[in-house]
Every structure is written in C-alpha cells, then in structure tokens.
Amino acid sequence: MVLLVGDSSFNLVRSDSHALRDFWKFGFMDLFDAYAKFPSTECLRGAGIVTIKSGDGILYVHQGEMVTVRYGTDATPTDTGGRIDPSLPRYVGTSEMTSCHAVLITSPTGYALGHLDGGGRGRLTEEFFGTVTEFFDSISSSNETLDVHVIGGFLDNKGFSKNLSLQILTELLVSKRMFKLRTLCSYLLNDCITMKSGDQLHVPAIRAVVFDTHVGALFPASIQPEARGPLSVLRSSYVYSTSARSRMHNILDPISHCLILRPFVIEEDTMEALKCVEHCSHEQLQNFSTTPKQETDHFYEMLKRTSLLLTTLRKEKIDIFAGGNLEFIFDEITKQWCPVNPRAEEATENPLTCFK
Fold first, then answer.
1. What CATH number labels 3-349?
2. Torsion angle of alpha carbons 247, 250, 253, 254, nearest 10°?
3. Sheet holding 58-60, edge to edge
4. Residue pair 56/226 in contact by the 8 Å Cβ criterion
5. How many CB atoms lie within 10 A of CB 325?
6. How far apart are CA 248 and CA 127, in angstroms?
7. Residue 105 and residue 252: Cα distance in Å, rounded?
8. How far apart are CA 346 and CA 121, in angstroms?
9. Which GO terms describe its cellular component (predicted)?
10. What is the pLDDT, as a whole number, of residue 242?
11. Are 12 and 20 within 8 A, CB to CB?
C-alpha cells in the first residue's frame, strides 16, 4: 500500500525484489530526508517528559512483548482526540530501548504497541505487523489511514539500529494498509553524542515513551522500575525463551483487556549462562547486550534479578506457570493490575517476580 510522509508518499511491493533492494540501498535514507523536511511533523525530542511512578496506571510493554487494544463501547472521546476507557490505564508505554525500537499504531478505535528487537532476521518484525494488520482489519475499515510512530535506536557501530529501522519501514511500505508516519525518531534521528571516559559516545536520545490515551499523544518518558509490572522480572525473562525466537508475546486480550502471560520455556544452555550472572564482573555482564556501553544501570540490575528468579525457580522445582496462564485485570480505583486467577496471585506473592 502507501506510507504517507509529510506531503510525500512511498510504497513497495513485497514480491518486487529489485525495488526492495533499491530501497535498502538508496530509498531508505530518502524516507528519512522526506520526514526531516517537515517541521510541522510531531517532534518527540522537543516534547516534555512524562514521569510514570508505581500507581500511576500504565500498560507496560517489555522487550519482546506487544499489545493490541480496542477501546470499549463505554470509552469517552476527548476534545484532543483521545479516549478515556475505564477498563484501561491512561498510559501505555515501554522503556530500556537502545538499539530496540518501539512501534505505536493508533486509530480512533484502538491502538497497538510493540517493543521490537529485530530478532529472527526480520521474522519477528514481519510477524508483528501481520498481527497488527489483522487486528485493525477486524476493528476498522480497510480504507482508514492508520497513524504510526517509530522510536528507538541510534548510530551504533554494529548497525543494529539501522537494520531494525529498515525492517520496520519496509513492513510499512509493503503493508496492505495505508499508514501516516506521525513520528520518526529512530536510528540517526534518535542519535546524540555524550562524553564517557574522555571519549565521544553515540547514545539514543529517547529510551522510553508513553502514549497518553486521554490526550491522544506520544511523549518521551521516565518509567520507574516499580511501574513496569505486573511481574516485571518474570516478563523480562521472556527474551531468553525459545518462544521469543519465533513470535512476540502478545500480552493483552484486545476486547476484554485482560493481561495474559502465557507459559514459555528457557533452554538448558541459556539457563546455564544465566546461572553464571551472579558471579560475573560488569565487563562479563556486557556480553548479554548488543550495545553494552549504552545500557542503563537498570538493564544490568534486571539481568541479575532475572538470573536469580530463574535459578531459584529451577533449584526449588517451582513451575510458575503450572496449570496455565497468569491473568490480570486493571483496577481503575487502585490503578494497579490485579491477579484474577490463583496462579497469577501466587506468582505475585513471590518476591522475586517483581521489581520492588
């Protein structure tokens, strides 16, 4: 179909291998140039930062996770184009992005958000857009133009960010849906330079974002670790699972708005590597990241907590998913995700599953 960028339009056909190669070689930067020409296009880097603390109410998406959300029939439209849905938190967001990207797609009837890492040589990115397209086809007219926001990455020396931006933009160009590129703050447009140990270091300007559903706008964010639940440590371990190689973890029922964590398995070799984390030096811990110099302290703290959780569960022979899924519903009064089945309640009571 067509990707609208300012007053320009771009499109590709997946079966046209010659055109795809040309885009990867030349057209990719043309799209960035087209976006940069329009100052009226939303500028995320100049927006105010929204701080999210525990209890503020957020649908948080970890690396390897995604959500698709349809607003309920009792959702109230706002003057700014947002929606107030009592069954959902005001904010949806993600953080800890270095070479990873957040992709937000919105319409008057719902939204989708994914924290993509480029895994599977583009298969997971393609799978994400396939799921999103199917979702919006089910809740809106196929002729409706969807707004899309792409955030994350920087000028990393191994090209991870460039490759992921390329994957995402390619999927937008070959999609059967029409998209309007509202925000492009990825790769070189999200790069900034800082000084570290006397040397210049490229880092991402924006690492976290939230979409304010009441306002209908995207903002850079600071999301405290305690606000990244439920079960933030358990969920962060999904990226080490066998499932993470083939699909993203779609954690929300788009209609009932029940947050569902499905069972996943971590291979023995990966477990052995994670078991060593508690004995690793900081330099050794950097091997767990593709962009170690740009990671936050929280990344390494979460890595240690993930290792402790998984090794403890293995040692004590606890199957946290015994019997099936872990399910939660958002409580509008407490602004917390509350367990709705015994398995989820038991998991919440385990102090190692959460960041407190």
1. 3.30.1330.200
2. -100
3. 50-52, 217-223, 209-212, 91-94, 58-60
4. no
5. 14
6. 8
7. 15
8. 37
9. nucleus
10. 92
11. yes
Does the pTM surpass 0.85? The reply is: yes
Single out the residue of 183, 188, 187, 148 nearest to residue 1, CA to CA: 148
Q: Which of 193, 227, 194 is nearest to 208 (CA)?
A: 227
Residues belonging to the chain: 356
Q: Which residues pair with 103 in a beta bridge?
A: 114, 150
Across 22-38, b (16+ Cβ under 10 Å) vs e yields ebeeebbeebbebbeee
CA distances from 355 to 103, 155, 295 (A): 25, 31, 18
Q: What is the 3-state secondary structure (H, E, C) of the chain?
A: CCEEECCEEECCCCCCHHHHHHHHHHHHHHHHHHHHCCCCCCCHHHCCCEEECCCCCEEECCCCEEEEEECCCCCEECCCCCEECCCCCCEEEECCCCCCEEEEEEECCEEEEEEECCHHHHHHHHHHHHHHHHHHHHHCCCCCCEEEEEEECCCCCCCHHHHHHHHHHHHHHHCCCCEEEEEEEEHHHHEEEEEECCEEEEEECCCCEEEECCCCEEEEEEECHHHCCCCHHHHHHHHHCCHHHCCCEECECCCCCCEEECCCCCCHHHHHHHHCHHHCCHHHHHHHCCCHHHCCHHHHHHHHHHHHHHHHHHHCCCCCCCCCCEEEEEECCCCEEEECCHHHHHHHHCCCCCCC
State the 10-residue block means of pLDDT for the chain, 356 residues long.
87 88 87 82 83 91 98 95 96 98 98 95 94 96 95 96 96 95 95 85 97 97 95 96 93 98 93 89 89 92 95 94 95 94 96 89
- Give the number of other Cβ atoms within 10 Å of residue 200's Cβ: 8
Distance from C-alpha of 25 to C-alpha of 19, rounded to nearest angstrom = 10
As beta bridge partners, residue 250 has 66
Tokens of residue 125, six digits: 């990115």
What is the pLDDT, as a whole number, of residue 55?
76
- The answer to whether 251 and 260 have CB atoms below 8 angstroms apart is yes
pLDDT at 43: 83
Cβ–Cβ under 8 Å, residues 209 and 102: yes
Q: Rounded to the nearest 5°, which phi and psi values hold at 45? A: -65, -20
